[in-house]
Amino acid sequence: MRTAVSTTAPARVCLSRREFALLRAIAARRGEITGGHEPDLFIDGLACCDQSAAHHLAHAGLVHAASPVAVGQRASTELTTVGRVALATLAGGEWPSDEARIVDLDGVGVRDLRVAV
């Protein structure tokens, strides 16, 4: 059973290089996510080495299950509209250091997301 939670899109999100790489892998349809309050992320069938990054992406509303998923079960994951905007914003610029980058999402036009939990 899938539980949907209505959230407000964040005005800004801070992403690390690892989170950016996870967004790229999900955009390439290589990711799976488990159902539950703290969803686990799998890339190419392997557990993500940084589940806190996976949780951050899910809780920030950047990724969600592509279909209904029961707690503990896996489903394909996809980027939300906000996730696609964040990925496009980061892909267009240089990332000169190892520091995290802040993506300004204000004005994206997405205010009500349905996020799988």
Question: How would you characterize this protein structure?
Answer:
The protein is an alpha+beta fold. It has one domain (4-116). It is built from three helices and nine strands. The protein has helices at 17-27, 51-59, 81-91; strands at residues 4-7, 12-15, 31-34, 41-43, 46-47, 63-65, 74-79, 101-104, 113-116. The strands form three sheets. It has a five-stranded antiparallel beta sheet with strand order 5-4-3-7-6. A two-stranded antiparallel ribbon has the order 1-9. The protein has a two-stranded antiparallel ribbon with strand order 2-8. Strand 3 and strand 4 form a beta hairpin. The longest helix is centred in the N-terminal third of the chain and has 11 residues, at 17-27. Residues 1-7 and 109-117 have low confidence and may be disordered.
Write the layout of secondary structure elements.
Elements: E1 4-7, E2 12-15, H1 17-27, E3 31-34, E4 41-43, E5 46-47, H2 51-59, E6 63-65, E7 74-79, H3 81-91, E8 101-104, E9 113-116
Antiparallel strand pairs: 1-9, 2-8, 3-4, 3-7, 4-5, 6-7
Helix pairs in contact: 1-3
Quick structural overview:
The chain is of the alpha+beta class and 117 residues long. The protein contains three helices and nine strands.
